[in-house]
Specification:
4-stranded antiparallel sheet; about 40% helix; alpha+beta; binds flavin mononucleotide; globular
């Protein structure tokens, strides 16, 4: 796959196969993440890659964490993913996609919220932190995009996740993340279930002319 194709084909994966990822493969992807550009080559990213029992512990801890809408593991399992093929567009609030989302009802929203804090049941859960003393979240963004694209190149899927940060304290506790690092974002990683409608739903981008301006 050439680079352009790879970038245009990347999509958020929200249903994964249970197949584990070979450690060498995870290492290859994480290496690509660490080769991202950063301001002054500060490399402020700190990746916490939770596998196996640690990943289960993390997901369980968040599912049990007290707080608004803290759902149970069972609640997630009960949610039936609606068939969103060709229907849903995930974009910002207030655009036409909001109406599409409403039409699908509460189910997708629940799936999205519950699923996110469970890293969509992916076999690998990655948390990205940054030293409080330096670096920018722009650097983290660059590293995460490297991660997503590298994963895709290996036939793996990812979803960039902000919602697990609702449970920062739990994440910090389970992964033993030092107090002098800020949690910035999370990513789920695993083999995509390509048969799942959720992984095939239509996506869109704003009209090209609205976001790209040429000046001569
Ligand atoms: C900073 C950030 C936070 C995100 N948080 C979540 C999240 O918590 N749950 C989720 O399902 N998707 C999350 N996403 C994925 C976006 O919904 C997705 O990238 C967007 O809808 C475009 O779809 P695509 O990735 O398939 O191209 C996040 C993306 C970014 C960049």
């Amino acid at each position: 796959m050439d680079t352009q194709e790879s970038l245009l084909n990347r999509r958020s994966i929200r249903k994964y196969l249970k197949d584990p990822i070979a450690p060498e493969l995870t290492e290859k992807i994480m290496t690509a993440a660490t080769w991202a550009p950063s301001g002054g080559n500060s490399q402020p990213w700190r990746f916490y890659v939770a596998n196996g029992a640690k990943r289960d512990e993390l997901v369980q801890a968040m599912a049990e964490a007290p707080g608004p809408d803290a759902p149970s593991i069972e609640a997630f399992d009960e949610i039936i993913v609606p068939d969103v093929e060709g229907g849903l567009r995930l974009q910002g609030k207030g655009d036409a996609s909001e109406a599409a989302l409403k039409k699908l009802g509460e189910d997708f929203q629940k799936f999205n919220r519950f699923g996110s804090i469970r890293f969509y049941q992916a076999p690998v859960a990655i948390v990205v932190a940054k030293p409080q003393t330096g670096g920018s979240s722009l650097d983290i963004g660059a590293a995460v995009e490297n991660l997503l694209i590298a994963a895709q190149g290996e036939g793996l899927g990812t979803c960039w996740l902000g919602m697990p940060l609702m449970f920062k304290d739990k994440i910090r506790e389970v992964l033993d993340i030092p107090g002098n690092e800020d949690l910035v974002t999370c990513v789920s990683l695993g083999y995509p279930d390509n048969d799942s409608a959720i992984n095939r739903m239509a996506r869109s981008r704003l009209p090209y002319d609205q976001t790209v301006h040429y000046l001569t």
